[in-house]
């Protein structure tokens, strides 16, 4: 990508608190970078200037605090910018005090591709009178393909010639005075100004920028240096994390690293849809990076009351019951033999799934002769699971078939032969045998 000059306005002077600055009538178009360059003196300086119509002040530099006078006083020099929208109105520059006087102009630059990055700048100046102006400013970060612009202003109506700038590490193209005609005006307490630009052909700045120029007489003066650059904005979208201990930098827009989530809860998989970066002659593109880009692991919860098997999906193994008289195979499903409970008074078939769970029998002689053949007296059982009042019809020399009792803990299918008039003591309780 390249940056080049598009259009230039004409320097104008104002001896007031504001100045309307004219956008060049021909040339500027949507997407162009417009710079408003200005310098002024005031009775109280420095001031805080502002500009309307959506423009932004980049910065200013003042070479002292000397009040304005005829051919004397400190200069406050600076720049503002706006990207042309396609339909623009002339902005009004407010000096923050009465300029005595001020000078301003708008110049326009165009790009071949990409997007404008926000302009940056720094300034410098001198307070020892000299006709050969030379001052430095802090490097704003200059590299190949940048467009650099400098505006210079002096305290008197002394003409400027051959403004330029240089920097160790940067190789610049030839300098162009822009606007072509500088200004030297005797309005009010006098002012003069000029501006120029140079493209960085190669290299990266490694020192302060030195701005120079020649004045027709010895003067005080100051300058402001602006760097223009284009590139591709990093449009990175990160899905916000959810849960306790979520990612600390969710939804960042310019490639900020997301801090790993901690504690209970995980960060949802961030999705990077498109990532591009361009700076000078260096560029990189990353596309369609989806899924678990953060690789965040969550440690099992700990502490009092924490789940012992966090994250199990099904079928945790039940812990064996302990204590006197507890069923030794608690939790078995239907059809699985339950080992007899041990201990005092324990239920003999605890843990069955079909039917009600039997209450532990109590007392001496409980169901002690279950399953005996007919003709043997069965002691009456008490408690849950006893046979209920079987009705026996007697027929001599016949085999009587006893149907299996139903219910939890019932007598299982006793088969026996009988003699005449066998004596059966009626059992009571739930789960009777039928004859």
Key features?
3 domains; 435 residues; single chain; disordered C terminus; 8-stranded antiparallel sheet
Describe the protein.
The chain starts with a strand and ends in an 18-residue tail after the last strand. The protein has strands spanning 3-8, 12-14, 18-20, 33-42, 50-51, 56-62, 76-83, 92-94, 99-111, 115-116, 120-137, 147-154, 160-166, 170-172, 176-177, 183-185, 191-203, 209-228, 230-231, 272-279, 282-289, 399-401, 415-417. 34% of the residues are buried. The strands form 6 sheets. Strands 11, 12, 13, 14, 15, 16, 17 and 18 form an 8-stranded antiparallel beta sheet that branches. Strands 1, 2, 4, 6, 7 and 9 form a 6-stranded antiparallel beta sheet that branches. Strands 3-8-5 form a 3-stranded antiparallel beta sheet, with no helix packed on it. The protein is globular and about 60 Å long. The chain has no helices and 23 strands. It has 3 domains: 3-231, no CATH class; 232-294, no CATH class; 359-435, no CATH class. A hairpin with a 2-residue loop joins strand 20 (272-279) and strand 21. By secondary structure, the chain is an all-beta fold.
């Amino acid at each position: 990508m390249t940056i080049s000059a598009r259009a230039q306005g004409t320097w104008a002077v104002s001896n007031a608190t504001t100045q309307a600055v004219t956008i060049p009538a021909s040339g500027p178009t949507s997407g162009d970078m417009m710079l408003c360059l200005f310098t002024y003196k005031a009775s109280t300086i420095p001031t805080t200037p502002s500009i309307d119509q959506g423009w932004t002040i980049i910065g200013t530099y003042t070479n002292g605090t000397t009040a304005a006078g005829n051919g004397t006083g400190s200069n406050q020099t600076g720049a503002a910018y706006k990207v042309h929208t396609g339909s623009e109105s002339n902005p009004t520059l407010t000096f923050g005090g009465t300029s005595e006087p001020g000078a301003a102009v708008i110049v326009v630059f165009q790009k071949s591709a990409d997007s404008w990055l926000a302009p940056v700048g720094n300034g410098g100046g001198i307070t020892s009178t000299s006709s050969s102006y030379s001052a430095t400013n802090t490097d704003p970060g200059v590299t190949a393909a940048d467009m650099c612009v400098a505006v210079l202003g002096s305290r008197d109506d002394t003409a400027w010639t051959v403004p330029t700038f240089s920097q160790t590490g940067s190789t610049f193209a030839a300098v162009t005075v822009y606007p072509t005609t500088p200004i030297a005006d005797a309005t009010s307490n006098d002012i003069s100004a000029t501006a120029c630009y140079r493209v960085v052909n190669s290299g990266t700045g490694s020192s302060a920028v030195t701005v120079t120029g020649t004045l027709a007489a010895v003067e005080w003066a100051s300058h402001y240096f602006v760097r223009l650059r284009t590139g591709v904005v990093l449009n990175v979208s990160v899905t916000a994390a959810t849960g306790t201990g979520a990612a600390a930098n969710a939804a960042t827009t310019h490639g900020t690293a997301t801090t790993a989530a901690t504690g209970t809860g995980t960060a949802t998989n961030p999705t990077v849809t498109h990532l591009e970066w361009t700076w000078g002659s260096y560029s990189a593109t990353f596309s369609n990076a989806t899924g678990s880009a953060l690789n965040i692991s969550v440690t099992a919860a700990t502490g009092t009351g924490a789940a012992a098997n966090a994250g199990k999906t099904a079928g945790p193994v039940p812990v064996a019951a302990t204590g006197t008289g507890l069923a030794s195979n608690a939790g078995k499903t239907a059809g699985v033999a339950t080992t007899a409970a041990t201990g005092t008074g324990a239920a003999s078939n605890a843990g069955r799934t079909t039917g009600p769970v039997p209450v532990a029998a109590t007392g001496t002689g409980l169901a002690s002769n279950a399953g005996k053949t007919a003709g043997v007296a069965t002691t009456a059982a008490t408690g849950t699971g006893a046979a209920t009042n079987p009705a026996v019809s007697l027929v001599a020399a016949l085999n009587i078939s006893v149907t299996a009792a139903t219910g939890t803990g019932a007598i299982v299918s006793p088969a026996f032969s009988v003699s005449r008039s066998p004596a059966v003591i009626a059992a009571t309780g739930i789960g009777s045998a039928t004859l």
